[in-house]
Amino acid sequence: MELTTLIVLLAVALVVMAIVVGALVVRLIHKNNELKEKNDVIVREVRRNQRLIDRAVQQGVSRAAMLSVALLCMVAQGAWAEGVNYIYYKAIVVNNEVSLNKFNGTYSNPTVLTSTLLEKSSEDNLNSGWYVLNSSFSYGERIVISGDVHLILKDGCTLTAEQGIRINTDATLSIYAQSEEETTMGKLVAIESHHDKAAIGGNKNYRAGMLYIHGGNIEATCKDGSKYAAGIGGGYGDGSGMKAITIYAGKVTAQGAYLGAGIGGGKNNNYPGIINIYGGTVGSTGGEYGAGIGGGENRAGWQTNIYGGDIRATGGFYGAGIGGGEEGGGGTLHFFGGRVRAYAGKWAAGIGAGEDGDGGTVIIDGGNIYAWGEEGGPGIGGGSTRWPPHGRKSGTITINNGRVEAHGSCEEGHEYLDRGGAGIGTGYSGTVETITINGGISRHTVYTELRE
């Protein structure tokens, strides 16, 4: 009986083994067929590409060029990109003279930035490291910069951040391009359509860190209907602001929200930072009551140093072109070079204070500076006031070098100059403090009609 049982068990074991072996054989055969199919696909693709290359060679295209294109396509498909080139800058300032040095860098194996990478991260964070954008995509959540982040925008690629980019207080975002041509350089589009948040920078009552733009086409826009924040810079509230904004090159376009500056502060920011512009093409427009570059509503201009570049700054209603928002002083504004065009909103200075604000400190050591006040505002200096005789002060204005054109303007509907702002000085019913012209070429006038 025991022998019979043993024989039965052995038979069952053999049957089970036979079934397992059979299943493995079937799986191996199936896998072999899959590999054969993939191999056939690869062979067909290789033959097709070879025919294309042979045809291109017959038409005069070099075989090396075709192989280079193929290799670039292969690299673009990987999670890591080897040897990515980029342009970066270093500035040295000595005795009011700036030397902006351009360098060509290469970073090995940066992480490829994709929407999947952001989705898998904690709270849409980008942590410290180097990233490369090698294909265009849009991302629907607010991107958060959480460390020392370096982003290379490859030529022809666009990242659209549909809810903008927040830079944490202790974080830094550095942006690079691969070329200097506007038609080919990579692009970053940051959009903010809600209240309180900058398109690039801070959130409500949250101070942002630092931003360095070495190149690329950068667009930061607070859409119509958004409120209280800057295009690049601070969000809304007493606790908001930004540590530093530095632009070396590229094309930068910024639009502030209602009560926010184009580049600088949002409404009621208590943590103004430093704005340094060394080059590039910058177009910045304040939202209503905000400066083009500088303060949001009820805040003075930020410490602003312009060393070069082509800058056009337009204040919103009651905001300075460069300087304070409505009821904001001019801050400390220093011009070393570049081409600067600063246009004020109503009753504000082109360069200096917003409406009903004191002028602050303006120093011009070089550059081609064009400043236009609007409707009672001066070209350079303190803002006009709607409540005479309580005028505002011009602040301290010093011109040491450069070419300066400053145009004041009369209030709309008043043909007499006693309702106008000075070319250099202060707005309607204001008081002149200190104006010193040591050198340079200056032209300052008062216009009885509005600029076009």
Structural commentary:
- The chain contains three helices and 36 strands.
- It has helices at 2-58, 63-76, 115-120, and strands at 84-94, 97-107, 111-112, 125-126, 129-133, 137-139, 143-145, 148-153, 158-161, 165-167, 172-177, 187-192, 200-201, 207-213, 217-222, 232-233, 241-247, 251-255, 263-264, 274-277, 281-285, 293-294, 303-306, 310-314, 322-323, 332-335, 339-346, 351-352, 361-364, 368-374, 380-381, 396-399, 403-409, 424-425, 434-437, 441-447.
- Strands 3-5-8-11-14-17-20-23-26-29-32-35 form a twelve-stranded parallel beta sheet, with no helix packed on it. Strands 4-7-10-13-16-19-22-25-28-31-34 form an eleven-stranded parallel beta sheet, with no helix packed on it.
- The radius of gyration is 30 Å and the shape is elongated.
- The N and C termini lie far apart (113 Å).
